[in-house]
Write a structure and sequence with these properties.
Largest sheet: 2 strands, antiparallel
Strand order of the largest sheet: 1-2
Number of strands: 2
Number of helices: 9
Helix content: over 70%
Shape: globular
Strand content: under 5%
Oligomer: single chain
Distance between the termini: 40 Å
Radius of gyration: 19 Å
Order of helices and strands: HHHHHHEHEHH
Length: 229
């Protein structure tokens, strides 16, 4: 009875839940952030993503404890910043969220690279890790923009706000991660340029390594084929 309860308690939650949370954040945030009550909705969606990420990697007691210890200050600081920005400035929340997302991405990649075969869970974990990388750099750009008084980014368009808060950071992050680069937002500070270069290289290497890993898992002979040989 105890082994069954232990498996139920520390079973890895499906990464499909994390993908759903990410899809809700990415599709809804650009449309609701400018309306009344939009920042509250974005805070709810972002908290949902962070908590879903914790559950997605909670396959062991130690991992769950570490993820919770990282998630509690990130989510708490986000909500305090939402209602009382004078008490908790954005850099506090952003730093805590960056550490949590980096931990989640590391565990998702470890799960994918150690998987014995390709299944739905592995594919969903691969996609979730890619999207979490984009979210990681989104928060990093926002943090750099907050800490650079003269402005770390140049906006070559008159549309929208000239800040990396919200959709601008998300848009620039995924455009850079996919190595498209339209040029409407340009990093000008050294830290911003370094982050953009690192994200572009990460996007290229991630796709190359991931495809190679999934192909090798899919083409690897199963136990039955080994016995036949």
């Amino acid at each position: 009875m105890k082994p069954v309860l232990r498996r139920l308690r520390f079973r890895r939650f499906s990464t499909v839940q994390l993908l759903v949370a990410l899809a809700l954040l990415f599709t809804c945030a650009p449309f609701v952030e400018e309306v009344k009550g939009g920042p509250l909705i974005v805070s709810i969606l972002l908290s949902f993503v962070l908590l879903s990420a914790v559950l997605a990697v909670a396959s062991r007691r130690r991992t769950l404890i570490v993820a919770l210890l990282l998630a509690i200050p990130a989510v708490t600081a986000r909500w305090i910043n939402h209602f009382r920005p004078d008490l908790v400035p954005p850099p506090v929340f952003l730093t805590a969220a960056l550490v949590l997302i980096a931990f989640v991405v590391m565990n998702l990649l470890r799960f994918v690279l150690r998987a014995p075969s390709v299944n739905t869970e592995v594919l969903c974990a691969s996609i979730a890790a890619y999207l979490m990388l984009g979210l990681l750099w989104t928060l990093a750009y926002w943090l750099v923009d907050q800490l650079t008084p003269g402005g770390a980014f140049s906006f070559n368009t008159n549309a929208g706000t000239r800040s990396m808060n919200g959709f601008n950071g998300f848009y620039f992050s995924f455009i850079t991660l996919s190595t498209v680069g339209y040029g409407d937002i340009t990093p000008v500070s050294k830290v911003a340029r370094m982050l953009a270069a690192m994200e572009a290289m990460t996007g290229l290497l991630y796709v190359a390594v991931l495809i190679a890993r999934l192909v090798s898992l899919y083409s690897a002979p199963g136990p039955a084929e080994h016995r036949e040989k």
